[in-house]
Amino acid sequence: MRLSSFARWVLALAFASLAACSKGTGAPAESWPDRIAFDAERGPDTALELSGLVNGGRTAYFSLDRLETLPRTEFASEDPWVPGRARYRGVALAGLLDALALDARARQVRLVAVNDYSVTVALEEIRRLGYVLVWEEDGKRYDKFPDERNKGPLTVAFPHEAFPGVDMEEHKLNYVWWLARIVVTE
Question: Are 70 and 34 in contact (CB under 8 A)?
């Protein structure tokens, strides 16, 4: 059977996407535990507050150290805001939400920075593009960066180069630096 050039292109794109997801580009790790540990109250080392349609409606608080105990993912990519290529490490956002008993009504995820900058992203988009809560760049934690490259203890990124055709002018606003809160809504 002979495939048209369009069919070959579609198959190549599908295989590239599958290969990218299997190489730790942000796809939820298969080894997620049934239950994950978090704090029920904000503490002095809280790096992330997660609320809304997760965890039975109860807010979950995470320190950076606790997030680092979860299944990690890594990817290399260009940051749309800072010139140069880097290797990022963090935890798949969709995996974290699923591990916190994501409510079936969940459709939107609001990402809020320390300075109250926020964006709302469709949960479907977070899954499709493999959004990652990143705490490390090129082997160094963000909270250890002494200069303008310090993007907080947490930032949100995704391996956009694994998805040809993604409009980065539209999506680069979803790279939230100094992430403080995530709110899951309908």
Answer: no
Pick from 131, 133, 135: nearest CA to 160 = 131
- Domain made up of 5-185: CATH architecture: Alpha-Beta Complex (3.90)
| Four-CA torsion 66, 132, 128, 166, nearest 10 degrees | 170
- Cβ(36)–Cβ(100) below 8 Å: yes
Distance of CA 31 to the CA centre of its chain: 17
Please tell me the predicted confidence (pLDDT) of residue 2.
53
- 139, pLDDT greater than 60: yes
Which H or E element spans position 179? strand 179-185
Q: Where are the chain's structural domains? A: 5-185
SS3 content of the chain, % helix, strand, coil (to 5): 30, 30, 40
CA atoms within 13 A on the CB side of 156: 28
Q: How confident is the model at residue 52 (pLDDT cuts 50, 70, 90)?
A: very high
Q: What are the DSSP calls for 101-151, one per residue?
A: T--TT--EEEEEETTS-EEEEEHHHHHHHT-EEEEEETTEEGGG--STT--
